[in-house]
Amino acid sequence: MSGPAAASLTRARQKRRPEDDAPVVPAKKAKESPDGAAAQDPGASAAASIPQPDLPPALGEEARMTNAADVFQKKQIFQWVLQELPPALARLNLCAPDTNLKTLPPLDISADKDMKNQKVTTFKEAWNPTHAEMSLRANGMYEAGAALYWADTTGGRTGNVMETYVMEPSWHEVQSFMNVHVPEKSVMKNGRLLFAQTLACYGDLSQLVPAAGFPSNVFMLSGKIFVYAWYLAMCEALIAKNNSRITRLHEMALTVTFRAHLEADMNSMLRWSLHASELLRKAEQQDSFLMFARKICQLVGSEDEADNSLAALQADNICFNGQKINKASLNACKLLCDNLNEKGEECLRNIDRMFGRDVWNGAYFKMMRLCQLTKTAQQLWARDTVPDMVTFLLETCYVLLKRGDAKPTFFTNSCVDTRGSDRPGWIATTLTKMHLLGQMLDFLKAANQVCEGSVAELVKDVAAMEKMRSPLSWDATMPAVPEEEDDDGELEDSQATTLAQESLLVEGHDPLGQLQADLSKAGKLFVALADDLWKGSYETELKALCSTKDVCQGAMDDAEGKCKKLGKALKDAISVGAPDERCRFRVVSCRQKEFLVLGLEASHGTFSPAVATMQLSTGSGADTSASKMPRVSEALHLLSASGLDSKVGCAPMSLRQLVKTLSNESADLDVGKAERDKLWREAQQARKKKAQLALLKSASNKDSWQSLYSKTAAKTFDSDGLLNENHRLFVVCLDAWLEEKDAHTTKRPVDASLLEGVFGFLKQQVMEHDLLLILDGCEAANRDIIQKEMGGRVPGGGGLYSFTVLHEESKPAGKRSRKVFCGSMSVETAYLRINVPRVRLAVSDRTDPYVPPGAAKTTHNMNLVGVPGVSARQLPRILLTDKQKIFPDAEMPKDWKASSVPLFWNETKGTKFWETVIEMLNVGQIVDCTPGSGCLAKLCLSYDDVSYLAILEVSIT
Predict the structure, then answer these.
(1) Coil, helix or strand at residue 783
(2) pLDDT digits over 137-163, tens only?
(3) Distance CA 215, CA 213 (A)
(4) Which of 129, 570, 798, 894 could join 835 via S-S bond, C-beta 3.0 to 4.6 A?
(5) Which 3 state secondary structure label does DSSP give 644?
(6) pTM, whole model, 2 decimals?
(7) Domain ranges (residues) in the chain
(8) Cα separation of 580 and 593, whole Å?
(9) Strand 199-203 relative to strand 256-262, pairing
């Protein structure tokens, strides 16, 4: 290398201070890129020359939707620049041809008088390895002039956890950013290009202070777009062979300022990242609210209690969009993280890139209201999960923007939010549309299930309607009609647009007609109605139905005439007969299989084999007139008394056995069969009004619990609960959770890992009328698990409270009966979690006989004393072989005389206990997560105003 610049650079390196040569710590093996050394060492790639990249266009939808990292990796832009730049700099006498740019030191301020005549100069103090080590060890950070070549060029594919918390720009964003921040012409008189921001990076000590002296591969905490933009600008300059720009860009790379952080725990890294993002607030690539929320939730979710408090975050000066975090923005972060799934996150990212962050992701308020209104709607309809509903909203927004049916400026707070019950916004209206589309799909599925999938047209109806329910699927199935332009570039009038649509139909491009081609008449009407819903034909009618529990029925029964048009369209579709005589669309809610909710097993087992699985009657409906109902009530009473009465102690009688008992067996066989079938239908219809059973596939996933509950709750409960009048009680009894091999002799605590799913599900029940009752099963170790998982701060000001139940001791069955000092296990702790402050719950009088002596007979004291217990001999029983299908290790005591055994040896609570709980807590709806032997189910059948839903896992071996 020759020339004054080369000589100056050489002198700068030789004039290092003595402390610069001080020994540093031995370098550990540096983190390597998955792309190999070629990305870091251009010399290694010399053997296999990388071709000149063909840069894709910066405009268009594809550029907005494509990650810049993917383009840089696919086109090998990093590798090509590092390969071609050293020879180009050598031709400009700026470095040697074989220079490894990754190890190039930053420019140093020279004392030479001719400094201003050099090609590249600096104005800041350069990185000093000795000082870097001292500062990193003492302060955990170091800031100085650096070289951009040191930055990681693996494109976010290092596998480092922090990479998921660094914003990845799109290819379009990088191009736009480069045009602004790395312009062709500098605004400075001397032509110098500057980095407008200090770039935050991190690494371990061996990376930041390697044996060679200068870093070679540091990871970015923020501002990754600066690295992309500079490399893209240099790539274009090398392709154009613009020596002047190459020189200025090289100078720019050697005068960047790095604030290096020593890699630490995740919480510290996230705080640095949040602060670094705020420094980029004037640039394009600051954190979106979603990224901000993810970082905050990671901090709040840590084990360190100090990190969980709002005060701690405010003390750390955590800000978003220039505003310090407050209670509202913190709650918005939690709502977003809890209710946004991967599909929703991807859709939100697409909206940001295509139409800007101001639509949803620029501030916290709109995303907070979106989640809040969605949770309110989910409580009303209980059909879809909140994450699925949020995803539906975002996908609908994206489709509207993409098709040009709405502009980004439409999605303002005043348009999307609900302003009182009579002024629903876009969010509530769209969720109503989602629920109605789901009901329409249920109609078609019901008909197909009744016909057992044997009618081809019904199968196609369901498939077509499924396409019409999803916003993205509808958009792909029904592409927008291209708009015509006149000679002046303006849109033509409606008549011309209609002619354009008709021309498409003539040419055979009628997507709706093609979709309807092989459908039944009803299917065609449903699909056409769904298409009209998406095109906005019924927006006014949907607004009138936002607070209606049954949207479909509400539209058809509209007395005020607000939904006349939509109601007529629904009636036309529903009243059409199916192509098979076995079903009619008048059957609103039908399923192929119904399960009797008696003799239930626990949530880790399944139902007792004594409970029959029956095919649903496909008739138009059984006779439910008043003259027939007494017989149905009698049948349910006999059934309840036969198997679930604690005094009988035998396996439950199935409905088939009951029908056989009540029927006249001496009559003609055909007449007897008809009699039994009729009674069966009547009993099923009466039972379904009181109790339902939902079968869970996986109890370890809280989303599985919530999804199943959302689908079945609407069919079980006619209305929402009401605080102090009609509470919805969620029940978990740990004595009926799992049955182990030696349960008849030993009682063990439940493994906490098995309860993560159900406890996560319970925490999602946040309505003010929801009460969560968890009982420890007379096992002290279970109390610690309950307090740890369900205690702590409860949203809404509620909390976890406890009361004691002292059971009457009964003679054990199958267990050791020896009385040991202080060995009684008849005391049970019941934990009640509420979602409102206790002062909002009214104190009522207690009439039960289990009030503790000397205590006031009110719900101020909820303790129970002398509650009749149940022994194993009094519980409903099944054959041991049947029980082993549920619990393979089940066994019976050697001195057990009966041929059948209880489902749970340690079940403690009988009918009297549940009667007292229902009365004390004003319970009108019960969700039983541990049905056990069916005691609570039996009791609910005797109430006229208590609905019952049991959720249990299917695991028959």
Answers:
(1) helix
(2) 888 888 888 888 888 877 544 556 667
(3) 7
(4) 798
(5) coil
(6) 0.48
(7) 3-287, 420-590, 615-688
(8) 19
(9) parallel
